[in-house]
Amino acid sequence: MRTALVLLASAALVTGCSAGSPTPKPTGIPGLQTFVEEPKERHTTGRITWDHTPPAGGQHWPKWLRCGVYTDPVPNEFAVHSEEHGAVWLTYLPGEDPSALVALAKASDHKDYVLVSPYPGQPGKYMASTWGAQLSVDKADDPRLAQFVQAYAGGGQGGEKGADCANGMTPAQARAEIAKVRGS
Q1: Separation of alpha carbons 38 and 42, rounded Å
Q2: Low-confidence residues of the chain, pLDDT below 50?
Q3: Does a structural domain hold residue 18?
Q4: Residue 89 located in a structural domain
Q5: Residue 56 in domain
Q6: Ramachandran angles phi, psi of 33, nearest 5°
Q7: 95 assigned to some structural domain
Q8: β-strands 126-130, 133-137 pairing
Q9: What's the predicted TM-score (pTM) here?
Q10: What pLDDT shows up at residue 83?
Q11: Measured between alpha carbons, how far is residue 77 from residues 38, 87, 90, 173 in Å?
């Protein structure tokens, strides 16, 4: 028992975290922003306002969005739930070429945890978001995007590591559910 405790303590010192704590966030990606957003009640069907655009965690719909590549904007409420499962959401301003983001998503070792969509009004041309972290770049082939996907996709930053992202709702199903629940 003592040997196991010594090994566990040694592992915690080497990795910089303690047993049961979330994986430490990478710090070696220039321009990376990290946030602490831990609402008590994460799931809601009410209207939500986020502190970041696109959202990088926070309250969200009780169901998640199927990770994949979309040519139309997707509902934030569902994409944030996918982030909670470990998804990276790659977004681009409408009118920008998304082909490098699509290629990055398809080449990822964790492609079931990558979501690509346009995001009107976002502050950068190309952005990568996940639960608690975000990166904005001017070029879709910026190598920092690949670093971000490698560091975060499938990582479960939002606390549901290993939860499914490939079999969530489609954007059309998500929009229909929002309309049904909210009557809009």
Answers
A1: 8
A2: 1-24
A3: no
A4: yes
A5: yes
A6: -110, 140
A7: yes
A8: antiparallel
A9: 0.84
A10: 93
A11: 15, 14, 16, 13
